[in-house]
């Protein structure tokens, strides 16, 4: 039996995330109340282009005593407080199924997106964002070539509400010996789908979404920005390629440019939604970098923003969500509609 479109826009239901096997409870009947769409004024602090107390600005000294160069594009350095260390001795518990631990090793880096302290991806030009993508490509290639690295996890935490300690535009890279749990789940599910259909899951998914249209937020000739059918966070989005690209090493120059354009559009729409510099955690999932073929893998970005109704009302994952499964009232389709309705143009105050 199929759940018709009308039912899933009005009646409580569960949606499956085919990438992870996890479900989200959707309760659209609770959205009966009219949409408020508040855009209360949030004190906007003007930031200097260079902050002498910022450890990421060019020429400044970091906590460990090392000075940043006077960089003028992107700048990458080894995290001074790395969560993973390259020289961890191998080992682990051998035969106790209740106390399982194994050594983990890796490399953690920080990527400054711009020398400008007061910019964000949304405020940067597409060409400058393209340089960030090129930096990710280079880092993924360099770290992925190591024998002791299988996973290169590229991500950005934005905004104090996401625990980001510094407004200077930057992201992180954690490269590790083992595939972490999220990409590991996606690996199993994409592998299984490919074995059964002979096509990558996410390529089929993108084609079906483009045909349906109601969860699409932005499209260019190489990438699609959408609110996934199984979105958990109110305004969760994904960037998906329109052809089979497994990882950063497979991006052609035109893909790089188009990915930068998609990143610009996604972040600008976020900022426009509640007229605030929108907080989120974002990151890319790509194939394991173990030198093997992963034909079922399609690289993609996830954007997980915590805001629910306004610049200050955030979603909490508590109660049933902690103990049962995540839940949302606003459907993915309604979220996509709101994101389409706002402009992807720069904010007037963007740098
Ligand atoms: P956030 O993206 O969560 O704000 O983290 C910034 C990173 O920068 C954080 O991982 C690192 C922290 O360890 N850092 C340095 O490597 N050197 C410094 O001087 C301060 C912060
Ligand atoms: Zn700075």
Task: Summarize the structure in words.
- The chain has 351 residues and is an alpha+beta fold.
- It folds into two domains: 75-176, HIT-like (HIT family, subunit A), CATH 3.30.428.10; 180-341, HIT-like (HIT family, subunit A).
- The protein has seven helices and twelve strands.
- It has helices spanning 5-10, 126-144, 181-197, 201-212, 253-273, 320-323, 332-341; strands at 13-16, 23-26, 75-78, 106-112, 151-158, 170-176, 216-219, 223-226, 237-241, 280-285, 300-304, 327-328.
- The protein has a nine-stranded antiparallel beta sheet with strand order 3-4-6-5-10-11-9-8-7, sandwiched between helices. Strands 1-2-12 form a three-stranded mixed beta sheet, with no helix packed on it.
- Strand 1 (13-16) and strand 2 form a beta hairpin.
- It is globular, with a radius of gyration of 21 Å.
- The model has no long low-confidence stretch (mean pLDDT 92).
- The site of zinc ion has 6 residues, from loops.
Key traits:
12 strands; 9-stranded antiparallel β-sheet; 25% helix; binds 5,6-dihydrouridine-5'-monophosphate; 7 helices; 2 domains; alpha+beta; binds zinc ion; single chain; 351 residues; HIT family, subunit A
Secondary-structure blueprint:
Blueprint: H1 5-10, E1 13-16, E2 23-26, E3 75-78, E4 106-112, H2 126-144, E5 151-158, E6 170-176, H3 181-197, H4 201-212, E7 216-219, E8 223-226, E9 237-241, H5 253-273, E10 280-285, E11 300-304, H6 320-323, E12 327-328, H7 332-341
Parallel strand pairs: 2-12
Antiparallel strand pairs: 1-2, 3-4, 4-6, 5-6, 5-10, 7-8, 8-9, 9-11, 10-11
Helix pairs in contact: 2-5
5,6-dihydrouridine-5'-monophosphate is lined by residues 55, 62-63, 79-81, 110, 157, 163-166, 170, 172.
């Amino acid at each position: 039996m199929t759940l018709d479109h009308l039912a899933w826009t009005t009646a409580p239901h569960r949606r499956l995330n085919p990438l992870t096997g996890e479900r989200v409870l959707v309760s659209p009947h609770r959205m009966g109340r009219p949409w408020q769409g508040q855009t209360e004024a949030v004190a906007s602090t003007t930031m200097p282009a260079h902050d002498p107390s910022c450890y990421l600005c060019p020429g400044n000294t970091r906590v460990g005593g090392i000075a940043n160069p006077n960089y003028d594009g992107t700048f990458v350095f080894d995290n001074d407080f790395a969560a993973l260390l390259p020289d961890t001795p191998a080992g682990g518990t051998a035969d106790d199924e209740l106390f399982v631990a194994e050594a983990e090793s890796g490399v953690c880096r920080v990527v400054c997106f711009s020398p400008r302290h007061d910019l964000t991806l949304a405020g940067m030009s597409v060409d400058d964002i393209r340089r960030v993508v090129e930096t990710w490509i280079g880092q993924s290639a360099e770290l992925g070539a190591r024998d002791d690295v299988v996973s290169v996890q590229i991500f950005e935490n934005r905004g104090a509400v996401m625990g980001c300690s510094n407004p200077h535009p930057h992201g992180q890279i954690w490269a590790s010996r083992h595939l972490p749990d999220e990409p590991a789940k996606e690996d199993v599910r994409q592998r299984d789908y490919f074995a059964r259909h002979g096509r990558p899951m996410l390529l089929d998914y993108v084609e079906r979404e483009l045909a349906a249209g109601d969860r699409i937020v932005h499209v260019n000739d190489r990438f699609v920005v959408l609110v996934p059918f199984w979105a958990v966070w109110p305004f969760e989005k994904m960037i998906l390629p329109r052809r089979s690209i497994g990882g950063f090493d497979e991006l052609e120059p035109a893909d790089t440019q188009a990915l930068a354009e998609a990143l610009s559009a996604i972040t600008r729409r976020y900022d426009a939604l509640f007229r605030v510099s929108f907080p989120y955690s974002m990151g890319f999932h790509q194939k394991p970098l173990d030198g093997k073929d992963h034909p079922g893998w399609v690289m993609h970005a996830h954007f997980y923003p915590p805001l629910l109704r306004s610049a200050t009302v955030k979603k909490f994952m508590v109660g049933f969500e902690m103990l049962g499964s995540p839940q949302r009232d606003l459907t993915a389709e309604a979220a996509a509609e709101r994101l389409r309705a706002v402009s992807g143009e720069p904010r007037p105050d963007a740098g």
